[in-house]
Structures are given as C-alpha cells and as structure tokens.
Amino acid sequence: MADVKDFMSNDPIAWCPGCGDFGILNALKAALVKLGRKPKDIVIASGIGQAAKLPHYIKCNCINGLHGRSLSYAAAVKIANRELTVLVTTGDGDCYSEGGNHFIHNIRRNTDITVIVHNNQIYALTKGQASPSTDEGYVTKVQPQGVILEPIRSLEMAIALGAGFVSRGYSADMDHLSWLMLEGINHKGFSLIEVLQPCVSFNKKNTYEWYSKRIYKVNDDPAYDPRNFAAAFQKASEWGDRIPTGIIYRIEKPSYGEKSGLDKVPPLVDSNIDNIDITGILKGYA
Amino acid sequence: MPDELTIRIAGDAGQGMQTVSTVLAKAFKKAGFHIFVNQDFMSRIRGGNNFSQLRVSVNPLFAPRAKSDITVSLDKESVHLHRPSIADEGIMILDRQKHGITDNDSAYFDVPFYDMAKRAGGSELYANSAASGILAGVTRLDFRHIEEALKETFGDKSADVIKINIDAARLGYDFAKNNFKPDIFAIKEGGPNVNLLMNGNDAIALGAIRAGCKFYSAYPMSPSTTIMENISRYANDFNVIVEQAEDEIAAINMIIGASFAGVRSMCATSGGGFALMVEGLSLAGMLETPIVIVDAQRPAPATGLPTRTEQADLDFIIHAGHGEFARAVFAPGTAEQAFYLTVKAFNLAEKYQIPVLIMTDQHLADSSRDIGSFDMDRAKVERHIISKEDSKKVTGYKRYQLTKTGISPMAVPSWIDDVIYADSDEHTEEGHITEDAHIRISMVEKRLYKKMELLSQEIEEPTKFNIDSADTILIGFGSTYGVMKEVCDSIPRRKAGFIHLSQVWPFPSRHLTELLKGEKNILTVENNAGAQLAGLIRRCTGIEVDGSILKYDGRPFDVDLLLNRVSEVTSHGRR
Hints:
The complex is a heterodimer of chains A (286) and B (575). Chain A is an alpha/beta fold. Chain A has ten helices and eight strands. Chain A has an eight-stranded mixed β-sheet, sandwiched between helices. In chain A, helix 5 runs antiparallel to helix 8 (229-236). The termini of chain A are far apart. The mean pLDDT of chain A is 97. The two termini of chain B are 41 Å apart. Chain B folds into four domains: 4-187, Pyruvate-ferredoxin Oxidoreductase, domain 3, CATH 3.40.920.10; 198-378, 3-Layer(aba) Sandwich (Rossmann fold); 385-458, no CATH class; 463-572, Rossmann fold (3-Layer(aba) Sandwich), CATH 3.40.50. Chain B is globular and about 85 Å long. Chain B has 20 helices and 21 strands. Chain B is 39% helix and 20% strand. Chain B has 575 residues and is α/β, with parallel strands linked by helices. In chain B, the strands form three sheets. An eight-stranded mixed β-sheet of chain B has the order 6-5-4-1-3-2-14-7. In chain B, strands 9-8-10-11-13-12-19 form a seven-stranded mixed β-sheet, sandwiched between helices. Chains A and B meet through strand 2, helix 2 and helix 4 of A and strand 7, helix 8, helix 9, helix 10 and helix 11 of B.
C-alpha cells in the first residue's frame, strides 16, 4: 500500500505562505496514494512559473524544463515508455500563453497524459502582470488602465479541440480536487484539470473569498451529463457570478498509444538496439 | 568512347526529371559505371525550371560538372535556358514540334518523344520514359538495363503501366539508334556495379536506424524532409515512432522528453527551423540529455532559397544556444561519412549526455552517388546509460552527481528504484533548484570544461590528401569534400592537396596546426559569403589562411569552377 510519506520530498518549498499551490500539491499526493503506483513509475513534467516548481516538492520523477514546453516533453516521455504515469503541472501563463500551440496540438495528439493547470489568473513569478486568464479590467503595473484583452476560454477551447477529459477544480477543496486528479489520471488520453488557485501576493481580486462565493460542483446535479458536448460547452462558458467545477466533459476516444500501435508492443525504452540489422533495407539501394 | 558523360534532364517541376535520372542511374550502374546525380530545384511543385544532372564514369565520382554532354529539354523554356551549359560537341535533345522550336542549332537533336509517349500509352505522361530510352540509345547502352531499371523504378505500378513505360523507352531507344549516327557518346559496358546508390539524407536515416533511434520528431522543412520520409518508411519494421510535431520547438522538446525516458531520439530541420530549436538546444545542454539534431542547410537569411544549398550556418550552429555547454558538431562530406557519423553522433550524445549536431546541406542531402556497402563493425552502438539489469543495484541516485569526468551516471526513469530530478534551473547534484555559488561553479565546469576536454580527445580525424607534395592546400567542411577531391586529383604533379573537416566542434585545432606546418598556400573552400571556416581556423589556431574560395549563389561548387579557381592560384602562385 502506498502512503503519503512515500511521496514526501526533502526539497524546501519556495511558495508564498497561503499560496493556493499548497492545496494542489496536497491533493496530488492524495491522488497518487490512491493510484497506488510507486514514485519511480510516475513522471511529472513542468515548465516555468510557480506551478512548475511543484515536481520538486513531491517525490516522483521530474523533468522541469522550459517555459511553455512541458506538454511536448511529457507527451514524448509517454511515447518512450507507455508504462509510466505522466503528469504535467503547469500554469495559466505556461500552458495557455507561452505553450499555447502545444496545448492545441497535444489535445489533438491525445497521448495519455494528465495536465494540471494552476490557474491563478495572474503572472506571479514575474510579479503580477496579466496572464491570458486575467479578468478584463484588472489593473496591473503593466496594464495600468486595466486589462483590455478578453480572457482565454481555456475549457471551451479544450472541448472544441476534442479533449476527452475536461475538468475544473478548486485548490481549497482538496478532496474534490484529488478526486478529479485521480479520474483524470485514469482517463485514457489527454486529461485537463484546470485548478482555480488564489494568488495571495499578486491577485487581489480572485481571492479565496471571491472564489468560494461563486463556485459550485456540476456533478452534484444528477441531470448533468458530461458526455453531452453541447451541454458541456455551455457549462464551460459559464464565468462570473457562478463558476462551475467538476468533470465538465468526458468521452472515451482512442489515445495516441492505441492509434500509433504503441500499446500493442513493448515500451520503446525496452527495445534492444545493440546490433540492429539493416542489411535488408540496404538491398533497396543496390 | 568517353570515360565519362554528363547528362542533364531539364523541364518544369512536375515533369519527372528525377524519375528519368533515377532510371538512368540504375541502368548505367547495371552497365558497370560509377554515378553521381545532383538535383537543381526551384521552390515550387509545378512550373518553373528544374534539372536533374547525372554523371556517369568509369572512375568513382564525387561532384558535379559545370556542363553537360547531353541535355534533354522536356519543355520549351529549358531549350534556351540550358543551351549555354552544353559542353563542346554536346547535344540538346528536344521535341521541336511539341515545343515550337524554330531556330537552328547544330547541337539540336530533334526527337518526337511526346509523340512516342502517345503511341506507347496514349498519353504524354510517358514522355520521360521515352526520354530515358533516347538517352540509352544515344549512349548505346544495352536496352535490357533500361528495361530492368524501369521495372525497378515502377515496381509498385501495375504490369500494364510498366509495359507502357518500357514500350515508350523502346520507341525512344530505337529512334536514337537509327537517327543519331555518331558514336561520340557510345559507352563501353563492364560488369555490374553492385555499389549502393544513395544520397546524404538516405545515409543519415539509415545511420539513425542502425544507431537505435526509436523516436524521431520534426516539422517538415526542405532540404531535411526526406530524412523524415526515409525513417517513416522503415518505422514499422524497426519499431520507430515518427511524430510530425506542430513546430520545431515541439520537435526538439519532444526528443528531449523521449531521451530523458531512455530512448535514443533525433530531429532534423534546416536553418530557420533550427533557429526555433535553439532554446531547446540550451535545455538539452542544461538537462544533460543526449539528443541528435540535423541541420540540412539551405541559403538564408530567413526563408532564403528553400530548395538550394549553402554552408552559412557554421558560426550559428557552433554558437547557438544561450549559455555555455558542451556540444559536438559533425559536418559529413559524403554519404559514407553521413552514415558513420550519424551512428557516432548517437553514441557520443549518450556518452557525454550532450546535444550532437550534424550539419549537412541541400547538395549533400539530395545528391546521390554509388558507394561501397557499409561496414557494420564501424557502426556499432555503444551504450552509456545504466542498463536495466544494473539499475537494480542503484541506490542514492543523484542525476547530476559531480564526478572527475563531469559525466554523471545516467539512469532511466522506473528502471531504478529512486526517482530522477532533471531541471533547467541551476541545480544541485540531486537535481533540485539552487542558487548556491559554489554549486553553480561546479555545474558550469561539469557541463563545459570537463566534457569539452574529453570530447576534444576524440575528435574525428580530418581527411588529408596530397598534403606533403602540394603547394596549395584547400580546406573545407561538409559537402565540399567531393569537389575538393576531384579537383586535387586532376591537378598535375600533386601540386594541390586538401584537408576536409568532418567535425567542426570541438574544433580539430591540434590536427590542423600539425597539418598546416610549412610554407603552403592555404585556401578555404566554402559555400558561404563570410569565409566562416577561415574565421574559425583563425580563432581556434591563430592561423591566417591565404584566402578563401567562396560561392554563395545557392548552387554547389562544380569541378570545373573550382578547378579554374585553384589553377589560377597554382599557376601564378601567391608567394
């Protein structure tokens, strides 16, 4: 039996006290305990930002690379060794801005990876500029007249692009978030878990109090069917006085591993490459 | 009979000039000849003017000639465009009626090959098979070679289609034999030449397969794309995943991810795509992840001449990437070198946990030559990761453990019981983020000095030719190998020699300093405008070369041009 102690890292945490990231970290540990796999069989990929530091604070394999690029190496880790559980911890800037193209195309690629987007609606590592998800009108040092760009519609994008698992959690509701994470990991294919996460240092609008008043759980309503594309799209577009959380959209579809044939062969990493015989193909050049 | 012939097939894109040269290359090879084929394309799918040039000889060939003995014009435009490139006593094969050519020229040999195509198969589509037959007839090649070559080339087509192509070729062949009386191009056949016929991109793909590359990711970009196509062709049989990435940034980050997970991985691109990969190159340096990158150069800046050739990325490749880290850069000059160096690139990347780059260019990528088969003992996989079996014994693993050599044992995730932390921030031996100044110094020295010192001890030996007897020494890298070799071979009394660098980083400074001793006239030969190799030699060895022969029109050097330039120098002397 796995235990939360198995996932303890000794690396000192560099987040601000009260940061929503703590809730995400604890939820992830709880999900991984329930998953029952050993830390050595899990890889967490990340890019740059506060979210990207998370893999250091948990005991799992970690590849912490460049800003926006985490989905690229995460997808390839899964392709290289399909037996690994592969997660990404990314942020609203990392995933939706710098890595926007990879977000689009990795949904299409549909490798079996779980992407956790820490969405604090602000750039925190660079001290408070607008992110793609900052609410319109919010004032920052760089946007002193208030943000004029419309916020990105990330969940609608994901649904429109065909992601098989699209969800939203809240960092202060650990049990619910942990459940979402486990569901996402167990979903075969690209899973998106966007997490609303208050930034106590730089986002003075979207606070714990602000979120707590607005969020509700869609899956509490037995009539809500996450398999219904139109209903899910409508739900994903809801923002303001009421903010939906939970599994917004879920459908089964063939993953990259199935379509590429990878799932039928031993993991690529186990290939014996010592003396590959190419004499057969050389004949084609004679 | 001539010892060698150059045949040029010209037309607009989509007319199948390459098919004609492929068929002829196969046929002449069967007749015992050595082959060199190069391609001159415009960047378009239809129209424009392209040519494929085939050189056949009783001697091994390495480079193109400036002029052709026999030119086939498949369209009207080609007739006048290629007239100036016809050699003395050369001929131009054309279809006067089809193309409305009214002028007279003693070089013209009028052949109704479009009519032959229609007679054979009811369509002008078969004109290039008729042209193949005409060329075989003019050179008095045994028709069975053309027949076999057509069968091989159209092997995936129906028996009917193959027959029509052979019939069209037969009509052309008989016409040429009956109407082209002089035997000036008649060749003397020998036993079959059993060498392999391949271009640089074929060789790189085969090298990657042999080296155990199991993951290839790229965004299509001329002239690198045929590497991806080749690997895709063999992917199923060799269990390789080829992933067409959304952009070059994704491509390089994907191969870094696969490599982190323990799989040998590669990407290829051209200069513009490589520019996008530069951030990822630096990441590979920091994470200490082995990767192999091919830059098939084309003329730049920016989009440049997409289908043409240049060697202007030398400075860029050597210096690309923010920060300081070790790398190796190969610059193969032949398909053979491209094959062996690709295998070596994978071994070296894994040994030192670094990015290894292979620089080629459109000329090497797209030019085919007949080469001896590969020696697999020279292309062995050397593994440097902790094996699955040894992984069971690993405890207290630190990804960036400080060692005397600068190389930390590389483990594969899930093979060892410990977890692995790899980080792009400066990191501790465990791989966690740190700003400690002492650790920073140790890690910089590990990634740069220590690895470079070891890499410098196993630099690929430069090729040297006629160095002792020559007054003039040419120095080049990459695809100029062939033209330097043929030129030095043909200059009397071994007065010219050459040095070819197939590795340009770490720079072979010690080798060059040794080779360039004494009073010699030293010239670099470069397909660029900036004399980048000359600058690199100066920076690394202090040697100021006497001059540079540069070409930056987007076309490769040919034997005649370089011979002229070198002869001027050797006859007048510079000292």
